[in-house]
Amino acid sequence: MSDANTGDGRRATDAMRDPLRLLLPAVLLIEDDPNLGSMTSEMLAPDYRVDWAKSAGAARELLRSGRYDVLVVDRRLPDGDGLDLIRTLRGSGVAVPALVLTALSGVDDIVEGLDSGANDYLAKPFHFVELEARLRALLRGFHAQAAGIEIGDWLLKPGSNLIENPDGHAVSLTASETKLLATLAASPDHVFSRDELLSQVFSDGADAGTVDVYVSYVRGKTDRAIIDTVRGRGYRIGNPLAD
């Protein structure tokens, strides 16, 4: 028996009864506890289209075949840590927001989760109204980011690999340049080491020098102040302003 519950039949029936359900955000719930998974799916169902995967492997299957607006990820899965799944997605350029929902609630656990690419972290046991509020906030933030990310007086448009200068003129970026800027801008107070940027932005086989080269490329196309160098530590997003 598959450990992924796509609910295809139910969703098809729901869509025939109410086509407006197709407009609801799609959630991938990754949770191996049968009781909690079932309850969470049912509670989210009025406002979301929910697929439920009971393992990381099943989640990967669903992610290959479908598009999701938000992920809810347990850490202790039967085939690994849910954070490994998030790291893999971020490494391959998948930016869909992810909320970690887990009993691992220590400060170190939360820091590890956020540093691994999760957008939010909620400890079990939890109040369902709080989960719903956090999902709404994630979706609002993600949709705003998809439209454009302000970096000082510049506007990065990740969906089209463009960045607009303060005069509104568009500058073309490569996919890697866009991903580098988007990664830095997603955590403006964080100083990224070269190793972090290698794992989150570039493909396997790249070395630390690749990061420096692409930082130089981006600065050359835009403004030197768009990426700050923090000596001995790495890089963080800058604040380029019009003269």
Name the features.
243 residues; alpha/beta; 6-stranded mixed β-sheet; 4-stranded antiparallel β-sheet; 14 strands; 43% helix; globular
Describe this structure in words.
This protein has 243 residues and is of the alpha/beta class. It contains 9 helices and 14 strands. The protein has helices spanning 8-17, 34-44, 56-65, 82-91, 107-115, 128-147, 175-186, 194-201, 208-221; strands at 4-5, 26-30, 49-53, 70-73, 76-77, 80-81, 98-102, 120-123, 149-151, 154-157, 162-164, 170-172, 227-230, 234-237. A 6-stranded mixed sheet has the order 1-3-2-4-7-8, sandwiched between helices. The chain has a 4-stranded antiparallel sheet with strand order 9-10-11-12. The longest helix has 20 residues, at 128-147. The chain is globular, with a radius of gyration of 19 Å. The N and C termini lie far apart (63 Å). The relative contact order is 0.09. Mean pLDDT is 85; it is low at 7-13.
* Major sheet summary line: 6 strands, mixed
Through-space gap between termini? 63 Å
Low-pLDDT parts are: 7-13
The helix fraction, in percent, is 40-55%
Q: Number of DSSP strands? A: 14
| Arithmetic mean pLDDT | 85
Query: How does the helix and strand content classify structurally?
Result: alpha/beta
What order do the strands of the largest sheet run in, or round the barrel if closed?
1-3-2-4-7-8
Question: Beta fraction of the residues?
Answer: 15-25%
Query: Which H/E pattern describes the elements?
Result: EHEHEHEEEHEHEHEEEEHHHEE
Rg, rounded, reads 19 Å
- Outline: globular
Total DSSP helices: 9
